[in-house]
Write a structure and sequence with these properties.
Number of helices: 2
Distance between the termini: 65 Å
Oligomer: single chain
Strand order of the largest sheet: 1-2-3-4-5-6
Shape: extended
Radius of gyration: 22 Å
Structural class: alpha+beta
Order of helices and strands: HEEEEEEHEE
Strand content: 35-45%
Largest sheet: 6 strands, antiparallel
Length: 158
């Protein structure tokens, strides 16, 4: 009887420890986003909405509220754009989801925003008007054979 209660107590401690260790691995994130795009003719576009990312499924969804209600979805190498009356499906960069800020945060790869895994290297860092601007250059050692080329011949690793 004493052996049985000791075994149950050890099992309970193990289960509590495992649940607290694995309870800190986040799989999903939800965020509000705003994009202000400065066009060349001194006009600008404003887009805002809500973004959802699921690490396990590798699915990134943007629910755009302004300027027009629509849904943008990325999964694998497919981009979906759904408005009230149409749905557009097109090929996308296979790295789009894996290099998103959401994936980098959840997977713990936020060091240098995932740049070491690309063919780019840091070329110059300057400070202008309180902003730090980092310019990237293509790594001169990278060859086309190191890039992922999909069936349509599009370079997808850039």
């Amino acid at each position: 009887m004493r052996y049985r209660s000791t075994l149950l107590m050890l099992l309970g401690i193990c289960l509590c420890t495992l649940s607290s260790v694995y309870g800190q691995f986040y799989q999903r994130v939800e965020a509000d986003f705003t994009i202000k795009e400065q066009l060349t003719d001194s006009l600008s576009n404003l887009t805002f909405g809500r973004a959802y990312y699921d690490l396990g499924q590798g699915k990134l969804i943007y629910r755009v509220k302004f300027p027009e209600r629509e849904i943008w979805g990325f999964q694998d190498s497919i981009f979906y754009r759904k408005t009230a009356d149409t749905t557009l499906v097109s090929a996308s960069d296979a790295q789009a989801v894996r290099t998103s800020i959401f994936h980098l945060v959840l997977s713990g790869d936020l060091d240098n925003f995932g740049l070491p895994d690309t063919i780019f290297q840091k070329a110059d860092v300057t400070r202008e008007e309180g902003q730090i601007i980092e310019k990237l250059a293509k790594d001169s050692d990278a060859t086309l054979s190191e890039l992922d080329i999909n069936a349509e011949g599009l370079v997808t690793n850039v």
